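Hi C.,

You asked whether I'd gotten around to modeling the 101-residue construct. I have! Everything is below, sequence then structure, no commentary in between.
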Amino acid sequence: MQELPTEQTPVQQTSTLSLKELATILIKHHGYHEGFYEIGLQFNIAVGAVGPEPSKVSPGAVLTVEGISLASCTETSPLAVNAATVNPMKRATPKKAVAKK
């Protein structure tokens, strides 16, 4: 069994992405060129007795993020990102004819 480190290395935050920025990155990653998309979050919740020590417990809940998804949506959604705008289809450039000698 692998031992866990006794001290945690602090994670340095370099930047925060908005939900629209994250949607744009995922649209480009998956190669979508049309349609509207937004970020979806899947949560898990657990309830029970929670407290810093057994004599100080109270009813409580723990909320975790299970996953992040990219969901198609309508353009009227306030978080909608248009794939045609952020990741337009690249058009092939016509090849120039080679001059014969």
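If it helps when you're writing up: Residues 54 and 71 are 42 Å apart (CA to CA).

Thanks,
B.
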